[in-house]
Automatic annotation (TrEMBL):
SUPFAM superfamilies: Hect, E3 ligase catalytic domain. It comes from Rotaria socialis. Keywords: Transferase, Ubl conjugation pathway. This is HECT-type E3 ubiquitin transferase. One of its GO terms (molecular function) is ubiquitin protein ligase activity. It catalyses: S-ubiquitinyl-[E2 ubiquitin-conjugating enzyme]-L-cysteine + [acceptor protein]-L-lysine = [E2 ubiquitin-conjugating enzyme]-L-cysteine + N(6)-ubiquitinyl-[acceptor protein]-L-lysine. InterPro entries: E3_ubiq-protein_ligase, HECT_dom, Hect_E3_ubiquitin_ligase. GO terms for biological process: protein polyubiquitination; ubiquitin-dependent protein catabolic process. Residues 50-142 form the HECT domain.
Length: 142
């Protein structure tokens, strides 16, 4: 059985979306053994060039047939990005976040911890979001 992900990123190619990147860059960043740094530099140059094109269009009062997410506009304006901005990107994920924030998660016993399970280059990896995140249980406390 093949999934949509395995069609786009076959394991034999050794290239897949980066799960350890910043959330906003996950779409653009890919890792491959031995060339991750080079790809990062290429994507940074790509982002910079796109930024120059957008800036030139704005400067010349030209309309562009594209739109940006709310979080991108906030980055441009220097306004802090909050979890509510996730609604425009992924409404289902946003609803899940709101449900977790509005309810007592101890009642459900979800077993949430501060780590991510990632499958990279045929290996399962645990990425800790905070120190000792794989053993720290998520609670309602801040």
């Amino acid at each position: 059985m093949t999934t949509e992900r395995s069609k786009r990123y076959p394991p034999s190619h050794g290239i897949e979306p980066c799960t350890s990147c910043l959330p906003g860059r996950r779409i653009n960043h890919f890792t491959r053994k031995g060339i991750s740094l080079r790809l990062t530099i290429v994507w940074e140059q790509y982002d910079r060039n796109i930024g120059h094109i957008i800036a030139k269009a704005i400067f010349d009062n030209k309309y562009m047939d594209c739109y940006f997410t709310r979080s991108f506009y906030k980055h441009i304006l220097g306004v802090p990005v909050r979890y509510m901005d996730m609604e425009s990107v992924d409404s289902q994920f946003y609803k899940s976040l709101v449900m977790l924030l509005e309810n007592d998660i101890h009642e459900w016993d979800l077993g949430l911890i501060f780590s991510l399970d990632a499958f990279e280059f045929g290996e399962n990896k645990v990425i800790e979001l905070i120190p000792n995140g794989s053993t720290t249980i998520v609670t309602n406390d801040e």
